[in-house]
Every structure is written in C-alpha cells, then in structure tokens.
Amino acid sequence: MTNGGAADRPTTPAPVPRDLGAGSEEYKERWVAWRVLVYVVVGHFLAGFIWLLFYLGAHAK
Prior knowledge:
Transmembrane segments: 36-58
Distance between the termini: 94 Å
Radius of gyration: 29 Å
Shape: elongated
Region (Disordered): 1-21
Keywords: Membrane, Transmembrane, Transmembrane helix
Strand content: under 5%
InterPro entries: DUF6126
Structural class: mainly alpha
Protein name: Cytoskeletal protein RodZ
C-alpha cells in the first residue's frame, strides 16, 4: 500500500511561458508596418481592378 504521498500522483510539467516579445514595442511596430504594406498593396489592386472596369466599360462596343 502507498501512503498517498506526492510520489504516487502523476506529475505534469508546468506550461512553458510563450513570451516571444508579443508585448514589446518593436513587435507592435513590425506588425503595424506589415499591415500598412498589405493595405497599400490590396488597395492598389482594388483601384487597378476598378480602373480596369471603367476602361473596359468605356471601350465596349
């Protein structure tokens, strides 16, 4: 028989903290720059598509 001590209970490892710098200012600035880049690229594609629609509409027979 066991005495119900700590050796009888299975131990699970403590979770590893995932601090990848998510709260740092450098991390935030980097992601803001990526978002701006994506918004600019997507905005230009959308503007080009709308321009193409107007161009094709003006030259339709």
